[in-house]
Amino acid sequence: MNALTLVLVFIGATLVSMAAVAASIRVARRWEFLDHPDDTRKTQAHPVPKLGGVAVAGAFAVSSLFALLALGESGVLLSASWLLLPALAAALLGYVDDLRNIQPVVRLILQAGVGALAWNLGTRAEVTGVMWVDLVLTVLWFMVVINGINLLDNSDGLAAATVLVSAAGAGVIAVLFSQELISLLAVALVGVCVGYLRFNWFPARVYMGDSGAYFLGTMLATLIIGLRPATVAPWVGVVLALLLAALPILDTTYVVLKRLRAGIHPFTAGRDHLAHVLQDRGRTVAGSVLTLQAGLFVTTAVAIGLAAAQLP
Q1: What is the Cα–Cα distance from 238 to 242, expressed in whole angstroms?
Q2: In the prediction, which pLDDT does 23 show?
Q3: I need a labelling partner for 52 at 20 to 30 A (CA). Which of 23, 184, 202, 230 fits?
Q4: Where are the domains of the chain?
Q5: How many of the other CB atoms lie within 10 Å of CB of 59?
């Protein structure tokens, strides 16, 4: 798959995402599906529409599947659908969570179900060669990345920018190892995030809600697991995954450990994430997001370098 094709997929996904997110803002206002400020954790000046996640999921599905059809790649549509289905299931779960506020334990069980569904459809972390161990690792990976992206959705632009950088890194690695489907989906995911950020960058005009965070987290987890070139040792794949998802893993670890040390339940909402630490030290919202992305850019670049070093 040549560079021009990937550029066109990126442009198409960006435009579809922008149109879908703009439409979601109008629909959310009409339905009064809004995120209201509470003067503590939610500090936006006005209620913000939060159907952006539904728009993101729809835009990705439409743009990526249409791109495969337009390129005459109908033979891989089924494979693409198997990769996409768990993410759409996660988006539905997130939408229900937005509406009903699912209890944390039930939420984790359902997220584990998303990981199990991905495993059954062929997205598997083949690390140990022992099936049940790899199944557990796959489910845990999905749970970590889904919750990591969801927890990062605490500042305007942060979650989508994180997925953008990580997906771009996954796309480059997929190109290096001639994994055409993964590279196309990664580029489409980058485009969808760019289109969403057009409305979500500070000050945000739309939020993704749990539906968007669950979708983006699942899709990112899927793409990273999909980086399985035959010449790479399992340990290299593990390191690549950790480097590409370094920011959500680091933020989740930081928050959970800090809350446990303070005797606070890990699932308690609060302004104690890495972005909030930077903001409390004088960074603007946009500045904190860019600082964190700079760190993720470094780990992503290291992942690309490690992958390139594996080329024969």
Answers
A1: 6
A2: 98
A3: 184
A4: 3-309
A5: 27
